[in-house]
Amino acid sequence: MTSSWTKEFKIICQRLLFRVVEVVSSVLFWVVYHGSGEKMPPIENLLLLDTATAIAHKIRTRKVTSVEVVKTFIARIKEVNPILNCVVDERFSEALEDARKVDEFIQSGVKSVQDIEKDTPFLGVPFSTKDCLQVTGLSHTAGLHCRRNVKAPQDADTIALMREAGAIPFAITNVSEVCMWWESNNTVYGRSNNPYNTNHIVGGSSGGEVRFSDIWDGS
């Protein structure tokens, strides 16, 4: 009888302790994370709201230059990345040079708009990729501290194919360690923040990339 009562008492104490920990944790998390954090600056250039295919069409039909597009996206990154910490490496200068070559090629009239669309459907469009795919000369850490100084010696096949399609790589985005965890936080670049509420995480492993795409919509 005594043994049975002791067992029940332990169970009650365990449940009570669990409840106390749950309540205290909830209060602490509310105190620390209840706000919405920093607000994202509003979108000023509507190019940021266009799809990749729409931008590609505007570039090859000379409604906008590739340089203008790349500069617009670079400016937005510089504006919000101090808040979100999504981009961990970049090739902005090289991307602008690539964009200038694209504009010169289009202006030359060597190919028709139809041929450009067929051969290089994303000509002049900037794109980013997560820090686990190789882009020549850029960070290739996969979020691992032991790889903090590693730079990609060559492009991954997917990046090479994007280049063949005319796209311009210009940024590397944050990931979780080894791309295996549920938030994009690591000891190399730190944590990426959610643009909807910078007190919240962004998920993983492509958290930096996903939130990076969200920053164009002004959230």
Automatic annotation (TrEMBL):
This is Amidase domain-containing protein. Residues 68-209 form the Amidase domain. Pfam families: Amidase. The lineage of its organism: Eukaryota, Metazoa, Ecdysozoa, Arthropoda, Hexapoda. GO terms for cellular component: endomembrane system. InterPro entries: Amidase_dom, AS_sf, FAAH2.
